């Protein structure tokens, strides 16, 4: 069996194997006061880090080996540990800030055992990272369209803030004031811009820095431009961001003026509408009164003309009988005209009376009212599925009554009248030009179609005017107000009416009503 023996090492040799620096210090006493420490031992890592070349004891004193040890408190820490027999750990760098280490102090014998771990590379990397982050932050600030400025407070001997000193500005601020960092950083706000002395900005920024309460508001600067200003506390100072909102502010002020003008115009319009409504009401009352007063003498004319025909027809010569018949026809037409004028003037736009109305029910009611002329002519009346709309039921009934009664009146000889009422919802691409100026989006299209004599579409604009009859008064009774009344009803309901026709091929009246 072989004899295994361990190699022997001296203490200095063992210390050299430690991955960190180890050193032994002994105090220097002067009049029972420690004034310094001598470095008595140091392992290889410590010698390399401290750049020690001498092997004599002591190698170096603390003050000589670590300049600034007195000022930065390093000597005081060693003295405290030695005297109090405690153990402490801390980070320390020399005066050049090029060497960082984590120190550990422990009393040992008549001195102190000091271990320190070299942190220089890590600190350099941290500083480099911090510098890169600072450069990145400055790049972000310079890319911002908003002005960014950092200030620190300037205090007088009594602690009162008298001014703000520029610490940082971004590219937007440089452009706004036309000054470089060399011209701005370190200068005070009131030195560069004395006109701000009369503003409340210094007070606002001071309150933010002293209270920590952020501020945001619109501010008119001495240059005449409006800015949206925000200020937050940063350390002992304040960071301010400002966005130029002059264009928006000017637009808001102009909008306020326009709004005021619009409100005044609306008031004038409301007054004009009230006056117009009063005028229409007066006109309606006048029309009603006049038509009522005209009906009375007209009824007497009709009554006495009928008596003349009954009592004295045999005594009247033929020309007189013809004149009497013309008188009776004229009186009848006059009666119809007065009635239709009263009806037309009674169709007024009163949206307060609007309700949801079933057009199917309205048209069926009209069909019942026209049952006699439908039966006498043998007409065919087809009613499709009709929608519900918002409107005045009596006006909508008048609308369909006029259209269907016209279709029963204007027929072709020897042709059985064939009438139909249908409806469908319009797709957006189907909306005709005559509706595109209106605000309604969804529409119903209702068609009233007949197989009557029709008309030439060049007269389309005329047929919806007052007192217009394309077929002539000699062939059909009527006042020429029926289609004009239809148009007025649809105007009241925010709709429209038009027609398609060719002579001898009937007519289709197309009604457009807003969908409920």
Describe what you observe in this structure.
The chain is α+β, with helices and mostly antiparallel strands and 516 residues long. It has four domains: 11-122, Beta-Lactamase; 144-244, Beta-Lactamase (2-Layer Sandwich); 248-346, Orthogonal Bundle (Helix Hairpins); 350-514, Histidine kinase-like ATPase, C-terminal domain (Heat Shock Protein 90), CATH 3.30.565.10. It is 43% helix and 25% strand. The protein has helices spanning 11-16, 44-50, 62-65, 74-84, 120-143, 171-177, 181-184, 189-192, 201-211, 246-312, 318-346, 359-369, 371-377, 393-409, 460-463, 482-492; strands at residues 21-30, 33-42, 60-61, 88-93, 100-108, 111-118, 147-155, 161-169, 215-220, 226-234, 237-244, 355-358, 380-383, 388-391, 418-425, 443-450, 496-501, 507-514. It has a six-stranded antiparallel beta sheet with strand order 3-2-1-6-5-4. A five-stranded antiparallel beta sheet has the order 8-7-11-10-9. Strands 13-15-16-18-17 form a five-stranded mixed beta sheet, covered by helices on one side. A hairpin with a 5-residue loop joins β17 and β18 (507-514). The longest helix is centred in the middle third of the chain and has 67 residues, at 246-312. The N and C termini lie far apart (112 Å). Residues 472-476 have low confidence and may be disordered.
């Amino acid at each position: 069996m072989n004899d295994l023996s361990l190699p022997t090492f001296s203490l200095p040799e063992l210390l050299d194997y430690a991955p960190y620096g180890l050193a032994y210090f002994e105090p220097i006493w002067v009049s029972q006061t420690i004034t310094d420490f001598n470095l008595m031992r140091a392992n290889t890592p410590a010698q390399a880090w401290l750049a020690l070349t001498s092997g004599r004891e002591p190698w170096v004193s603390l003050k000589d080996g670590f300049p600034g040890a007195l000022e930065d408190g390093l000597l005081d820490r060693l003295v405290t540990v030695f005297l109090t027999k405690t153990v402490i750990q801390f980070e320390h760098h020399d005066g050049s800030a090029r060497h960082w280490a984590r120190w550990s102090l422990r009393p040992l014998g008549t001195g102190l055992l000091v271990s320190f771990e070299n942190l220089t590379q890590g600190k350099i990397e941290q500083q480099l990272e911090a510098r890169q982050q600072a450069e990145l932050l400055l790049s972000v600030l310079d890319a911002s369209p908003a002005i960014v400025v950092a200030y620190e407070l300037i205090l007088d001997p009594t602690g009162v803030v008298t001014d703000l000193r520029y610490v940082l500005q971004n590219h937007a601020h440089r452009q706004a004031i036309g000054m470089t960092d060399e011209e701005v950083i370190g200068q005070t706000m009131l030195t560069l811009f004395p006109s701000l002395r009369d503003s409340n900005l210094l007070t606002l920024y001071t309150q933010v820095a002293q209270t920590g309460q952020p501020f945001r508001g619109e501010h008119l600067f001495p240059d005449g431009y409006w800015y949206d200003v925000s200020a937050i506390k940063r350390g002992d100072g304040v960071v301010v961001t400002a966005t130029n909102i002059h264009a928006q502010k000017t637009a808001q002020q102009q909008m306020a003026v326009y709004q005021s003008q619009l409100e005044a115009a609306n008031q004038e319009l409301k007054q004009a509408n009230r006056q117009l409504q009063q005028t229409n009401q007066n006109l309606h009352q006048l029309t009603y009164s006049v038509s009522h007063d005209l009906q009375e003498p007209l009824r007497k004319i009709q009554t006495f003309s009928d008596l003349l025909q009954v009592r004295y027809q045999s005594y009247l010569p033929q020309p007189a009988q013809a004149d009497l018949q013309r008188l009776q026809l004229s009186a009848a037409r006059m009666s119809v005209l007065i009635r239709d004028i009263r009806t037309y003037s009674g169709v007024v736009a009163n949206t307060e009376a609007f309700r949801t109305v079933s057009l199917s029910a309205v048209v069926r009611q009209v069909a019942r009212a026209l049952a006699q002329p439908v039966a006498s002519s043998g007409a065919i009346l087809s009613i499709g599925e009709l929608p519900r709309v918002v409107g005045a039921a009596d006006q909508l009934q008048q609308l369909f009554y006029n259209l269907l009664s016209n279709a029963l009146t204007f027929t072709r000889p020897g042709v059985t009248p064939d009438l139909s009422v249908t409806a469908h919802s319009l797709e957006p691409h189907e909306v005709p030009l005559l509706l595109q100026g209106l605000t309604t989006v969804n529409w119903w299209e209702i068609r009233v179609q007949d197989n009557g004599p029709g008309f030439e579409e060049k007269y389309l604009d005329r047929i919806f005017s007052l007192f217009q009859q394309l077929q002539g008064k000699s062939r059909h009774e009527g006042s020429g107000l029926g289609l004009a009344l239809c148009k007025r009803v649809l105007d009241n309901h925010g709709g429209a009416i038009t027609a398609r026709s060719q002579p001898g091929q009937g007519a289709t009246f197309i009604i457009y009503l807003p969908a409920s």
